[in-house]
Amino acid sequence: MYDYLIVGSGLFGATFAHEAKAAGKSVIVIDKRPNIAGNVYTEDVEGIHVHRYGAHIFHTNDKEVWDYVNRFAVFNRFTNSPVANYHGELYSLPFNMYTFNKMWGVVTPQEATAKIEEQKKDYIARKQQERGLSADAPFEPQNLEEQAISLIGTDIYEKLIKGYTEKQWGRPCTELPAFIIRRLPVRLTFDNNYFNALYQGIPVGGYTRMVERMLEGIEVRVNEDYLKDREHWNQIAEKVVFTGPIDAYYDYRLGTLEYRSVRFETELLDTPNFQGNAAVNYTDRETPWTRIIEHKWFEFGKDENGNDLSKTVISREFSSEWKPGDEPYYPVNDEKNGKLYEAYRTLAKEEQQVLFGGRLGEYKYYDMDKVIGSALEFCKNKLC
Q1: Residues 102-160: tens digit of each pLDDT
Q2: Mind telling me the catalytic residues?
Q3: What is the pLDDT of residues 259-281, one digit of tens each?
Q4: Could you tell me which of 360, 359, 378, 355 has the C-alpha nearest to residue 368?
Q5: Contacts of 321 (CB under 8 A, 6+ apart)
Q6: In this structure, are residues 66 and 60 in contact, taking their beta carbons and an 8 Å threshold?
């Protein structure tokens, strides 16, 4: 009899498993996939660490979490600086002085600010007039389009936000809630550092190797689906830490939580350089994919010995509505789904043996550092 069965070998499950073992607990980890590491799984292809479930760039301002992950990997100095492609026009992301210079020809922060403010003012005045309000009345954005334009103006919205966002969410920006885009990274500097975090990078050797080190000395079984034989698995451990979808655990008895999913088309190309950057976002509505990832640039186009790589691997990402059987990626954290999750959470509180955690167990969008921080806090409460 194990003390803990951990269902899922992603960052939450691996962190809990490591800490439980360190606390002297007997632990077993199972995963229904044929590999460990959950969505951060990286696979070696021609010396390139391919992010099979989408690009993952570790970034955090939390020194405790940063010190923790550095126990299991050396991180390189990769800085996320994506490029936006709008019908062949290339723009720097996040929105900064390079973006504004390309968009309007402005040179100074004052000129950029004036251009943005002019567009915001004209748009808000027009919207207020439509609502029968004075131009200087408080403006309350009623959807994502209104929120975005009130922050950055019409040109940036039309070229760099609208099409990309509508592909991501599968619906018009006018039908999306304003809260999705409450903040936009807007910089009046020539700074292409997207995350602007104190600590960031990619683990040298890939995320799979990092998770392997977290799980050293722990029994791990892949290709094991807990939900298909939960009676068996529940009998082998005192406690179960479940990191899968909370609604799936309850056989969707209250209804199905909604997600956005992502499909990838990945190619190995016999060329050393396809797009010259790790991430290029396609922000027009007509291009069917949201972005192309060129994986080798996460590690500067070099193999582990510092040699240039002669081939490259690219992944085109296509956003889609989630349906049972697809991989759930992004929770749709609107009011309806929030209420449904709370109903499932009420059921979960009654469980005596099973504990829920992680992105799917908590139906919450988590950056990687927040997943690990949440797992460490979870350990403090459960392993004391």
Answers
A1: 999 999 999 999 999 999 999 999 999 999 998 789 999 999 999 999 999 999 999 99
A2: 183, 187, 260, 291, 317, 365, 367
A3: 999 999 999 999 999 999 999 99
A4: 359
A5: 170, 260, 261
A6: yes
